[in-house]
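Give me the 3D structure for Lipoprotein.
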Amino acid sequence: MKTGLLSIVSLLATALIATSVHACSLVVDERALPGLQDYLSNKPVQQDAVCAVQNGGVEDWLRLGPAQDVGNGRVFQTYGSETAIVTDCKNNEFIHLFGKVNELQSTTCGAYLELSIYLPPKGSFDLAHGATLQEFASYAQAEGMGIDRPTAEHLYNSPRRRDRFDIFCGCKIFYPDSAGAAK
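Predicted structure for Lipoprotein (183 residues):
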């Protein structure tokens, strides 16, 4: 009787173990595999025919609007209402442009102003100003805007392939014979 009871208990234990093996899901121990969970949940970047970007950045936060030709060999793409990328197709350069709050201004949501207050029809900021991006950057700063090259460089040269996008995409559309289009 003891042998029969032990056999039944053994069979039940084997069945429970087999069931739990097939019913389990992947649990990632981040101490053992650092960054794997982020990689698994991170979506590949998507860039469409008008160069709009979805799922950019390590946590899929970057969304660029469609590329806009602003003249003088430049392309403008917004992300959010306060920031943009300006690409100089002639010279293979790009910068991050943002509306900066000065000490006399305040916003309800942070340190940046919407770019629309600078751009026509509300403002008179000229996105095609200057022969070089350096001249453009000086002009933007004189107009009270912020310029950040490292942020733009980080967005373009993401360490993970699935987070990279073609920052020169608009050059291929609007300035196909430019150096930027060849990138």
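The longest helix spans residues 2-23. Let me know if you want a second pass.
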